[in-house]
Design brief:
heterodimer; A: alpha/beta; Rossmann fold; 2 domains; 5-stranded parallel sheet; 18 strands; B: alpha/beta; 9-stranded mixed sheet; two-stranded antiparallel ribbon; 7 helices; 15 strands; 30% strand
Chain lengths: 331, 265
C-alpha cells in the first residue's frame, strides 16, 4: 500500500476550458499534500490543451499528465476511463480527486470499478486522521445525515462537490512539469455524442444571488416579478421542483436534491415551504431569506431573515423600493 | 426475432419524508418508515414500460435488499416488470457501491439475457449515483448517465438526451446502460388490475450461492466493500439568525439587512 504516493486531481475540461472545480480541488490537494509531504499531480484529457495545462501548475500542481488526442476533445466515458485507469496503474497515486459534476459522477465510478477500489461520492470536506489517512465527509439521506468515510483500498477515490473548497491564488511563478502521455484510444466505444443541444441554460450553481419561487406562485406569468427582482439584485431566478414539473420554468433553474445544489451569497426563497428535497439543494447558502405566508413553513427554520406575508404584496414593494434606492430616492 | 430484454435495477429505500433520524446515535431509524421503491427508480420502471410498449419483450426488476423488501418488488411488478428477482443473503449485507454494483452485475450475468439496463439517477438514501456506471463497467458495456429524454429506441440502439449541465444528444449502442433523471417521464400509477397481477406474481429469491458460478463471493457484502463509514451524525442545521420582520416596515428592514450584508451596494 505504501507504494501509493501523491494526490492526483482530475481536470475537467469542456470545449477546451478547464472547469473551475479543477482549481478548487488543486487547492485542497495542495493543502493535504503539504501535510503529507507528497506531490500533487493533475491529469488533463483533451485536444491541444498544452497551454491550458500550465494553469494547473499555477493553481498548485507539481506535475501535469497530458493526454492529447482529437477523440478526447469531447467527453467520452470509455476512452477517458481507459486512460485514467492506465495512468493510475502507472503512477500509483494514493488519492484521486474528481469533481462531483455530472461528468465526474459518470466517469469516476467506471474508473473505481475497473480498479476495484473504493469511491466516495459528492464529498463536502476532506480531512486527515492521526495516521494521515483520508477521511471523506459526505451527506447522505437527502442531506439529513453526514457520514465520515475511510477507504481501505488504494487509490482512495473521491468525488467532491463544486464550490466547497477555495482555489489558491493563481501563481505564475510556480514551476512544474507537463508530461505528455501516450493515449490509448478505443475507436468504437458504443456511445457517441450526436450533437450538443443548442439551448440557453442558466448556470445556477455559479450564481451569487438566487431569487427562487415555489408553490406560493399562482401562475407561470408571476415568475416575471421574481425575474425583475433578480435583475435588480444582479442574480438569477431559481425554482422549486413543483414549478419545473408543471412546466413553468426549465430544469436548469431547479434548486433541490433532484435539481441543482447551490450555495450562493444570497438565497431568497419566495413562496417556498422548504421540503427536505428543497433544503438539500440550498441549505449551505451564505444568507437565506424567506418570504412565505405560512409562519410554520419549514423554510423559516433555515432562514437568516424572514418576512411572513403574501409574496404578491411584499415582492412588488421590495422591487419598488430597490428601484427608488437605485435612483437615489429615499423610502 | 429475439425478444428485447430490459433490466431495471431498483433500490428499496425508506420514504425520506417520513423517516426519522436518531440524533444521539447518528443513525437512521429504519423502522420509522416502510421501504418503498426509490423515487428515482420509478422513472426507470416507467422508461422500461414505455420501451416495452414499442419493442415488446420482457422487463426484469432486480433488487439487492433484505427479505422485508419483497413488497417493493411486488410494486415493481405492478408498475410494469414481468419478473422480479430479490438478491437477499446475509453475505450481501454491509455492501458499499463497489460490492453492490458487483453483486447486481453478477445477477445480470446469471440472468444471461439483457439488451438494456435502466437505473434511476441516484437514490434518496445513499445518494451516490455510482451503482449504475459501476454495473456498466463490471459488465463491460457502455453507459449514458443523467438521461433526461429518450428520443428513439430500436433493438440495436438508443437515442437519448443526457443532461450534463448542458444537454447532449447521445447515441448508445446496445447492450448498454442508462441512468435516468426525474425529467425523463411521469411515472404512471398502477391500476387495480396491475396490482392484482403483482399479487399473483412470485418474487424470485437468489442468494450468494446462486451467484457463485458467475462471481467471486468474496467480493459481495462487507468483505467486498473497501469503504467504511467510520462516523455518522445527523445534520444539525447551520445556526441561522432566524430574524422575522413584521409590520409595515418589514421590507425596509430587509433592505437594511441586505445593505449591511454587502448584498446591496
Amino acid at each position: 500500500m505504501s507504494e501509493y504516493k501523491g494526490i492526483l486531481v482530475f481536470s475537467e475540461q469542456r470545449d477546451g476550458d478547464i472547469h473551475p472545480i479543477s482549481f478548487e480541488l488543486l487547492g485542497k490537494a495542495r493543502e493535504i499534500a503539504d501535510k503529507k509531504k507528497c506531490e500533487v499531480y493533475s491529469v488533463l484529457l483533451g485536444y491541444q490543451m498544452r497551454e491550458k495545462a500550465k494553469e494547473l501548475i499555477y493553481f498548485g500542481a507539481d506535475k501535469v499528465f497530458l493526454y492529447d488526442h482529437p477523440l478526447l476533445k469531447e467527453f467520452d466515458v470509455i476512452n477517458y476511463k481507459q486512460n485514467m485507469v492506465n495512468l493510475i496503474r502507472e503512477e500509483k497515486p494514493e488519492i484521486v480527486l474528481i469533481g462531483a459534476t455530472p461528468l465526474g459522477r459518470s466517469l469516476a465510478p467506471r474508473i473505481a470499478a475497473a480498479l476495484k477500489t473504493g469511491l466516495t461520492a459528492d464529498c463536502i470536506d476532506l480531512q486527515l486522521d492521526e495516521n494521515g489517512e483520508l477521511i471523506q465527509v459526505r451527506p447522505a439521506f437527502t442531506g439529513n445525515l453526514i457520514a465520515h468515510i475511510k477507504t481501505s483500498t488504494r487509490p482512495v477515490m473521491t468525488t467532491v462537490r463544486y464550490k466547497v473548497f477555495k482555489a489558491r491564488e493563481r501563481d505564475l511563478t510556480r514551476k512544474g512539469d507537463i508530461v505528455e502521455k501516450e493515449v490509448e484510444i478505443v475507436e468504437d466505444v458504443g456511445v457517441r455524442v450526436v450533437r450538443k443541444e443548442s439551448v440557453e441554460v442558466v448556470n445556477i450553481s455559479d450564481a451569487e444571488i438566487i431569487v427562487s419561487g415555489g408553490r406560493g406562485l399562482k401562475k407561470p406569468e408571476d415568475l416575471k416579478i421574481l425575474e425583475e427582482l433578480a435583475n435588480l439584485l444582479g442574480g438569477v431566478v431559481g425554482a422549486s421542483r413543483p414549478l419545473v414539473d408543471e412546466g413553468w420554468i426549465s430544469k436548469d433553474h431547479q434548486v433541490g436534491f433532484s435539481g441543482n445544489i447551490v450555495r450562493p451569497k444570497l438565497y431568497l426563497a419566495c413562496g417556498i415551504s422548504g421540503s427536505p428535497q428543497h433544503l438539500a439543494g440550498m441549505r449551505d447558502s451564505e444568507i437565506i431569506v424567506a418570504i412565505n405566508i405560512d409562519p410554520s413553513a419549514p423554510i423559516f427554520n433555515v432562514a437568516d431573515y424572514g418576512i411572513v406575508g403574501d409574496l404578491y404584496e411584499i415582492i412588488p414593494k421590495l422591487i419598488e423600493k430597490l428601484k427608488n434606492r437605485k435612483r437615489g430616492v429615499k423610502g | 426475432m429475439k425478444d428485447f430484454h430490459v433490466v431495471v435495477l431498483i433500490k428499496p429505500s425508506p420514504d425520506i419524508e417520513k423517516v426519522k433520524f436518531d440524533t444521539v446515535r447518528g443513525v437512521v431509524d429504519r423502522s420509522s418508515a416502510p421501504l418503498e421503491i426509490n423515487p428515482f427508480d420509478l422513472n426507470a420502471l416507467e422508461a422500461a414500460a414505455q420501451i416495452k410498449e414499442k419493442l415488446g419483450g420482457e422487463i426484469t426488476a432486480i433488487s439487492m435488499a433484505p427479505p422485508m423488501a419483497e413488497p417493493v418488488l411486488k410494486d415493481a411488478i405492478a408498475r410494469g416488470a414481468d419478473r422480479a428477482i430479490l438478491l437477499t443473503d446475509k453475505r450481501f449485507a454491509g455492501a458499499d457501491t463497489l460490492a453492490t454494483s458487483y453483486t447486481l452485475a453478477s445477477a445480470i450475468k446469471k440472468l444471461g439475457k439483457f439488451d438494456l439496463i435502466i437505473c434511476g439517477e441516484k437514490t434518496v438514501d445513499g445518494d451516490t449515483a455510482q451503482v449504475g456506471p459501476e454495473v456498466a463497467e463490471h459488465l463491460g458495456i457502455p453507459h449514458v448517465a443523467y438521461v433526461s429524454r429518450i428520443e428513439g429506441v430500436s433493438k440495436e440502439r438508443l437515442l437519448v438526451v443526457s443532461d450534463m449541465g448542458v444537454p447532449y444528444l447521445m447515441e448508445l449502442r446496445l447492450p448498454g446502460l442508462i441512468t435516468v433523471t426525474k425529467d425523463v417521464n411521469k411515472p404512471r400509477l398502477p391500476t387495480l388490475r396491475d396490482k392484482l397481477k403483482a399479487r399473483k406474481t412470485k418474487i424470485e429469491v437468489w442468494t450468494a450461492d446462486d451467484l457463485a458460478d458467475v462471481a467471486d463471493v468474496n467480493r459481495f457484502g462487507f468483505s467486498g466493500s473497501p469503504t467504511r463509514v467510520v462516523k455518522a451524525f445527523v445534520l444539525t442545521e447551520k445556526k441561522r439568525k432566524g430574524v422575522i420582520f413584521k409590520g409595515e416596515d418589514a421590507v425596509d428592514k430587509l433592505i437594511e439587512v441586505l445593505e449591511r450584508e454587502g448584498i446591496l451596494r
